[in-house]
Amino acid sequence: MAFILYLRTPGEKKRFPRQADAVVHLEERGFSDHAIHHNLEQFFSSPQGPRENVAAFLMVSLGIWVADKLIPRRETPDAWTREIVLNLAAPAAWEAPLARLTPLLQFLTGDVWTLAARQAPLDLGFAALWPHPWLPQAVVLFSGGLDSLVGAIDLLEAGKRVVLVSHYDFGQLASVQQRLSDRLRRYYGPDHLHHLGIRVQFSESPELTLRSRSLLYLALGLTAAAAFGPDTPLYVPENGWLCFNPPLTLNRLGPYSTRTTHPYFLEQLVAWWREVGISHRLLNPYQSLSKGEMLEQCRNRRLLKELYPLTISCARPEVGRWQGRATAACGYCYPCLIRRAALHRLGWDDAKDYRVEALADPEIVRRRTQGRDLRALLFALKTWEATPAEIEARLWLTREMGNLPEFLAEAQGVLKSGFQEIAHFLRDKGGKQLAAYLE
């Protein structure tokens, strides 16, 4: 049975349908239903005012993100695929484009979506005035992770003036993003960058898979870029390993493999933007590089080495916060392991930066939770070294992609360099216990 979610716009007078399973609002007074806590008023209303199509895309992304968090997968027949009807405000001409967006959402989250549009005001209260005499030449997504730091450094080294856009939903992440942006501002000067931290928080989150977060992040970046005109590009700094995200085991095929910055997803999203009159470019210069190559080719390695300890790559940094640990990164999740392999390539890896030294504990591979991603990585590496074609066959590549042979060659290059990084890391630091798994 479909779950019906109704997303109100600020000041909307319409009554919501009785059959709605949940009504979500943007923190409006007088409503006791599900609230999205936010500071969207921090978006710029100058030099150019908000455009309706960009505001509508932000509302679509907010609704999808909330539905993704609110509706538990475990309650569906296959414990994964949800049927979701999202009722939201959109321009009158968007009925057909929204229908064409749903297959892309299914690709992203693994769910069956219906987007029901209604006409309503789309004033989201953007109120900030651009405070500088200079205008940015690019907007960069700035998560507080390693990749986003490299992306920011490379653009600043190229002489670009940039706006760094961050999304946060808990305070520790906001402080990481702010600390990094402050250090970059100190190094490059206040006339080269502005940091915009956007809080979008939905506390009712029984579902933790969060396949749609990247869509919200892109919408936040687009909304920031729109204030500076349609020629302002949006950069998504993401290494190619994560973009193609090879399923490590057969159990991780299909919906269990995230596709947040997959080339097909980004390509199709830009095509959809063009359909609804959004002309901003969406760029990822690192799609053909492994994470280690991305770090290695950074335009200011000295600054990167100084700042990388401030970044967070962990999948669940809030766990360390709840436990009162000084170190947020767990050390055993997939992003932590890939980060360590990349840093090891440069000789920068330090196990003391993590709560758990996953490679030093001979028992960790057998543990249900802490050993899950390490086991998957070991099995994938063993498969790759025996039959690379088996891993390549797991990649999600389709004839619908604009240039399939080019994407395939790019993916093969990323797999080769990425698995080399992983192999060197595991064999150099894993000891005899892990080496036995690779024999």
TrEMBL record:
The keyword Nucleotide-binding applies. It catalyses: 7-carboxy-7-carbaguanine + NH4(+) + 2 ATP = 7-cyano-7-carbaguanine + 2 AMP + 2 diphosphate + 2 H(+). Pathway: Purine metabolism; 7-cyano-7-deazaguanine biosynthesis. One of its GO terms (molecular function) is ligase activity. Its EC number is 6.3.4.20. Keywords: ATP-binding, Ligase, Metal-binding, Nucleotide-binding, Queuosine biosynthesis, Zinc. One of its GO terms (biological process) is tRNA queuosine(34) biosynthetic process. NCBIfam families: QatC. Belongs to the QueC family. This is 7-cyano-7-deazaguanine synthase. The lineage of its organism: Bacteria, Pseudomonadati, Thermodesulfobacteriota, Desulfobaccia, Desulfobaccales.
